[in-house]
Amino acid sequence: MAGKIPTTVITGFLGAGKTTLVQHMLRNANGKRIALIINEFGDLGVDGDLLKGCGIEGCEDDDVLELSNGCICCTVAEDFVPAMEKLLNRDLPPDHIVIETSGLALPQPLVRAFNWPEIRNRVTVDGVITLVDGAAMAEGRFAHDEGAIDAQRGADDNLDHETPLSELFEDQLACADMIIVNKTDLLSDAQSDDLETRLKAGSRDGVQVIRTSMGAISPQMLLGLGIGAEDDLDARHEVHHHHHHDDEDDHDHDHEHDHGHDEFETFQVTRGVVTEVEAFADAVAKVIRDHDILRLKGFAQVGAKPMRLVIQAVGPRIETYFDRPLTDAEKGRANLVVIGEAGLDRLAIERALGAA
Known about the structure:
Helix content is about 30%, strand content about 25%. It is α/β, with parallel strands linked by helices. It has two domains: about 5-235, P-loop containing nucleotide triphosphate hydrolases (Rossmann fold, 3-Layer(aba) Sandwich); about 260-355, CobW-like, C-terminal domain (Hypothetical Protein Yjia, Chain: A,domain 2), CATH 3.30.1220.
């Protein structure tokens, strides 16, 4: 692995806290040049924009590449390899690359792609980190809102694997070099102990299970594992085989699409300045309940405040926080992405969010 740039792959379902984990990593990078590849969906690149221009030392706009054409493991030739080449061909390449995958991405095909001729001599998989929503798992679910994951699946026209969440989760565990149980502040010690035991039973021998909340874990624990996962594929074999193509050197992928994409819809709502955060969050929660919205995310200006408000909702759970100063293009408005089952009353939702 000498001379190769290490890459960390972070996988986990929607709502597990991957973006929060990456933000914490950047804030504590101590000068290490970290480039990011964000596998985002939808018209508004929320996850990527949360990291671009974030004001964190060493995090520049051109250090964040968004792959928004669908599941990263299904668009290797079209998106992933060119993105990696773009980073590797810089005059000053990054010290480390971090890939935040979509929750739908199968980790094994992505790791396998590191053996493609274009990049295999220049980059290595330092480690695969699987993030788990501890609170959801303790309640018998894989994610806080599994319906939102189905909506994410329906919005991806390039997805070439139709995978039950249970099987996808097993594959995420099988490929992991480290498992992070997030949101343990919502669990009792007994619940955390039980969950750790179950996760260790479903993973390879020696894989660490680490507990955290709000993604607060030192980068020293995440980066520099030195695994070389692309040379260790037999040990992290897929529990379930989902893809119709097995050869990583075959660039012609025969994608089959019969996933009920018409069952879900996504649209963007633009409105004016928000007056008060708590009242707006309460009003948004009511709109979500009234219209069975699965996922809502975006940004807003609050009054005359110079900082940008981030809104993230998975089902009825809403999180709001100020992340950075507003740009000129963001001032005076709010942009929200709505995801739900087909048949949403778009006009009524736009009116309700506009009046919230």
